[in-house]
Amino acid sequence: MLEFDQIDLINFAVYGNEKDPEWDSIRNFVSSNPTAREKMEDLKKSLLLATETQKQMIKEENYSGSEANLVKSTTSKSSRANLKNGTKKSWWRRLTGD
Fold it and tell me: Distance between CA 75 and CA 3 in Å, rounded?
């Protein structure tokens, strides 16, 4: 029987599936070797945790991005209010300091 290392088990945990005949040999190795079975279970748990962590980080980024959009929209509203009041200077007057 073939021996597989940690990298092979990680590849199988990430990319392998139960129906693809390409993974038959490693699937047989995992099913016949209790140590490999334990490692696979640990790998699957850690992959699940990593996936959940990554999803949480994406949600937080999206949330902080929506806060930044809120700040931008509030700033643009105040700029429009200044324009209506006539207090907004033209770009040329800002540049020259008038």
Answer: 63
Measured between alpha carbons, how far is 43 from 20 in angstroms, rounded to an integer? 20
6-16 per-position pLDDT tens digit: 898 888 888 88
Task: Return the SS3 of 18.
Answer: coil
- State both tokens at 51: 């996936």
Contacts of 82 (CB under 8 A, 6+ apart): 88
DSSP 97: T
Buried/exposed 49-86: b ≥16 CB within 10 Å, e otherwise: eeeeeeeeeeeeeeeeeeeeeeeeeeeeeeeeeeeeee
Could you give the angle at the alpha carbon of 57 between the alpha carbons of 11 and 7, nearest 5°?
A: 15
Output the pTM of the full model: 0.51
